[in-house]
Specification:
Number of helices: 7
Domain Globin: 47-122
Helix content: over 70%
CATH class: Mainly Alpha
CATH architecture: Orthogonal Bundle
Radius of gyration: 15 Å
Oligomer: single chain
Strand content: under 5%
Order of helices and strands: HHHHHHH
Distance between the termini: 32 Å
GO molecular function: heme binding; oxygen binding
CATH topology: Globin-like
Low-confidence stretches: 128-138
Largest sheet: none
Length: 138
């Protein structure tokens, strides 16, 4: 991830954190519209999870490890492989609503890139788990 995107993500997350309750409400409401069962299965505070991810952006390997752990937890809770894409759409919408004019094209592109990476890593974790299960690896 390029430095300018990391800085945009960190600065815009600071704005999200200032309105954490509203951010959470917007995200969960949009997620519930898209997939009520998924909204009901949230196991982590979405703002805290997002903050933890943003805090790690300087270490791509740690970001990947964190997302893989999140994917493992999600699948263990009965989540489906398509859920991360649904979450991504709800998150990007909530960010746009929350940040308003601060959600510039550059900020949108930075968040889109990060969330696309998260969905890709989670899909890879799901694929890894299915491969391991098929091979009898625990």
């Amino acid at each position: 991830m390029i430095r300018s995107h990391i800085e945009l993500l960190q600065r815009s997350f600071d704005l999200v954190e200032l309105q954490a309750d509203r951010a959470r409400d917007l995200f969960v409401a949009r997620l519930a519209e898209s997939d009520p069962s998924l909204a009901g299965r949230l196991r982590h505070d979405p703002v805290a999870a997002l903050g933890a991810l943003v805090a790690q952006l300087d270490d791509v390997h740690e970001v990947v490890r964190s997302v893989q752990r999140l994917a493992d937890d999600h699948l263990a809770a009965g989540g489906s492989p398509g859920d991360p894409a649904t979450v991504r759409i709800a998150l990007l919408w909530a960010l746009e609503q929350l940040l308003g004019s601060a959600y510039t094209a550059d900020v949108r592109n930075a968040w889109a890139g990060l969330t696309r990476t998260v969905v890709t890593v989670m899909a890879g974790s799901d694929e890894r788990d299915r491969h391991d299960a098929g091979a009898g690896i625990a």
